[in-house]
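Support reply, case 0932

Customer input (verbatim):
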Amino acid sequence: MEAQTPDSKQESWRIFCAIDLTVSVRASLMAHINRLREAVPQAQASWSREENVHLTLKFLGDIQTSRLSNLSNAAALAVANLSSFEITLANTGVFPKRGAPRVLWIGVHDESRKLAELHTRLEQACAREGFAREERPFHPHLTIARLRKPQGATTLASAHEEMRFEPVVLAVAELLVIRSEPSAAGSRYTVISRHRLEG
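Our regenerated output:
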């Protein structure tokens, strides 16, 4: 077997496609997080940082950098002839529904079904470029915390579900392809390409 040279090993990046949030939406999320942290200070939670919250449409995992242009092409195709639209962020929830809580989330209401259409178009365009389809049903949400330890987790999850999150409207006008780089201080995100919706 031929030995692999350094040049023959493709670099891979951790990649996902997402919708960015406005400053006002991020402020609403942070206000909710701060209320929770004050209500249950003993809980051991990994809270989402303000600049890192996105509405993920497709997580691709590690892909070779040589395929990034293919992914950007797919994202461009997904938004082609699709007009901008609005979604509403409201309600609170926990994953999983039964057993020890692991994730706290804010719900996404897709009244126009345009978000579902964008997701379907993105999946189809990615499949045509050779990227694997996501087999699980699409349940859009915003993750605000991950509970990695049992201490205070149930109390925190209950407080989150009982605490009202005032509905906020988000205008969706752009699809982003983003690189995620894990670090001790939390993931660092870099936008690889931006794809504007029309209108």
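We compared this against your earlier run and they match. Two observations from our side: The longest helix spans residues 23-39. The chain has a mean pLDDT of 93. Please reopen the case if you see a mismatch on your end.
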